[in-house]
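Form 7-S
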Amino acid sequence: MRSAVTGRLTEAYERLLIREIDGAPGHVAVIQDGNRRYAAKEGTKKERGHHEGAETTEALLDWCDEFGIEECTVYAFSTENFDRPPDEREALFDLIEAKLREFADADRVHEGEVRIRAIGETDRLPERLREAIAYAEGRTKEHDRLRLNVALAYGGRSELLGATREIAIEVAAGSLVPQDIDTETIEERLYEGPAQDVDLIIRTGGDERTSNFLPWHANGNEAGVFFCTPYWPEFRKIDFLRAIRTYESREESWRRTRARRALALVRALGSAELDEARSVVDRFRDSIPSGELADVDGVVEREDAESTAD
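Output:
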């Protein structure tokens, strides 16, 4: 009886969250933490935790498709994971290989037009896993509705360090001038990574850190971050919806802040040279309280009248 009531409450809360959401981030990145701790809590083997975590990843793809998310990056195996015991590491390789091949052949993947790509130092992976990556990428290369990036042998520091070393070598060789180094110079030397910057990072398992994950694509874009306590196998659609709601709240706060800065600029100077500030106000008009908007509209009208009179 209690479980039935809980289920109805969960469904009601899910419907409420869906109604509260107006749009979604373009790119969600997920740190799938807690598989081993989940297994320990359930009194089962670590491999069982990883398998149940893989099932959550499958559900994640359905949620991304449902809410129109264009790109999803999952942190499947970090460079630090190479330090795990050999038997656990090999079991993970077996699971990832199997899932890549399964995903590549799944009707749901092709019907949903999911493109699978691996990012990271994949040359460090076993040959059987590299072959599975090539198979999955080849089978889905024509799709482009949802891009699924699987981070394998990935480390953000290693990625940035590698790019820095390449640039240093080219500068020393005289083929690159330091004054010409810009963001594009660095991006060209990163892993062949995400197609767009990260909007939202989700981390499960209770830890509040981003663990060296996509530092260039996420921090440079000032991505929103959602930390939650459920272990990855326990992560539910409700948790995913709460993450999106948190992202939307952050975006709305950013829009209001930028609009109010533009408002302050128009009020303070009100010159014809402030076209950019006025365009910002127009762009985020829906985010500005009506009282403040009426105030600045009056300022703009006076400035326009004075400009016409001159």
